[in-house]
Design brief:
There is one protein chain. Among the domains are: 135 residues, Ribonuclease Inhibitor (Leucine-rich repeat, LRR (right-handed beta-alpha superhelix)), CATH 3.80.10; 137 residues, Leucine-rich repeat, LRR (right-handed beta-alpha superhelix). Helices cover 9% and strands 12% of the residues. Helix 1 runs antiparallel to helix 2.
Amino acid sequence: MRLCGLAFLVTLLLISSHGVQGEEEEEEEEEEEEDIFTLVTAAPLECPKDCSCTQEGAVNCAGVDLKEFPADLPEITNHLSLQNNRIEDIPPEDLLRLYRLETLNLQNNRLTSRGLPDDLFEQLESLSYLYLANNKLTLAPRFLPTSLISADFAANFITKIYGMTFGHKPNLRSVYLHNNKLTDAGLPDNMFNRSDNVEILIMSSNFLRQVPKNLPPALYRLHLKNNMLEKIPPGAFTHLLGLRELYLQNNFLSNEGMNNETFVNLNRLEYLDLSSNNLTHIPMGLPRNIVILHLEKNSIRYISNNVLTQIRNLEYLLLHNNKLRARMIHSGAFLGLKKLHTVHMYNNLLEKVPAGLPRRVKTLMLLHNQITGISKDDFSTTYLLEDLNLRYNKITSGAVHRDAFRKLRLLKTLELSGNFLRSFPHGLPKNLEILRLNDNEIGSIPQDALSGMTKLKELYMKNNKLKISSIYPGAWAELSGLQLLDLSGNQLSYVPADLPESLEYLYLQSNRISSLPDSAFHSSPNLKGIFLRFNALTPESVMESAFQDLEKLQVLDIENNLAFKVTKKKTDEDTEKDD
């Protein structure tokens, strides 16, 4: 009746308009007719309270504290957002009337399997995207529409998948089942029967002991991390010729649980994560196209000469937190790996720098091992190295050859903190930008040790045994590009002289400095931060003129000195406020 009345009104308006204007204005009348019909058809939709609706059929009821599925949704609804509410069940009659529905988002509600009838979604023949993550489901929906493209059931309590849950879905591309309670018994053998186009399958953080059978052949991303996998059956991945990413970390996989053919057919595999398992050596037969290989947090004890060399595209090799010793790494283990630029071998049992390091490595992490020295040829072939980390080993000054770093002309960052160095190392690369020598026993900087290091921007020598008298005169002036100098935790009795003009941050806390003369910072007018707490300064020993020319100074920290109260440096802005 309402639509008939509107049509009658439109007709009257058109007749009246025609009588006034005459035949010579027919084109204008047609334009007015179109405008009037537009106004009629664009009438506001009846939208549920607290929700927003569009003429295109998108309804947003997210986060409005709904306890029940809204019964008064427009029939034209095609995208429905109901996430972040408190809905416990869905009456079939309220959902099935939405026959145009394409996207249904019910994430983060209180839905239970009892509140979802088995065939609730099956009759929504246009439904493409279904999001049910973060609910209280114990069973997956038994039937889903064949139109489905993506299904997200993550973070529920699901223990069982049915044959038609994901089977017979030719359009299905992605399935998310992580953070549930799935076991092998809860998966049908043909879980993806006639759903051959699934590309993404996420089943992490369940209780699976075996790789699911008959995985879709189109997979390019497979997540099985944080399960209880002990072995990979022969042929489990044979047909996954397009697989690019495989996540198997944090399981119970051992070398006995896989064979040399396990990964051999995965010719397009680029990312493989086998970290946090029970491997004692690197598996054989790894594909040549792997770019990133995670093997950290295993019990790997050796690397043979032919296990990695066929992975010609390898760029990142992560072997930290294993049980590697240098003598158990074959000198040809990295031969031919021309793309390998990042190697992590920290937290192992290396007693020296391994021989035969990748020739093109740029980042080498050897921290937290038992390395005692650096010989002349340890880095003689790694001429592209930019970042070298040897922190917290057992390196002594006498065991560092003067020419150990001679080939590292591109080295930018060198980390030697936490060793047993007694003297500043000789022969450091001139291109260094960051040098860390914290937590050693360095008591001297010998003549010319800093000579030519004009590109050094940051120097950290915290917690050593430096005294003013043990640093050669003019040492700091050599560092013409230095911006940060950390000498905290040493035995300095006053601020070092001849600090470079480029210096911006100076850390001198926890020394023995007892005075600040007016010339203390004369050579470094660009200082922004000075840190002097925990020294022996008194108000009488600090000359106010010492800071007079430091126009860029932002932080002056002189707390916790002897009877010294903090005096904030006045800025121009403070002066204006006083005025």
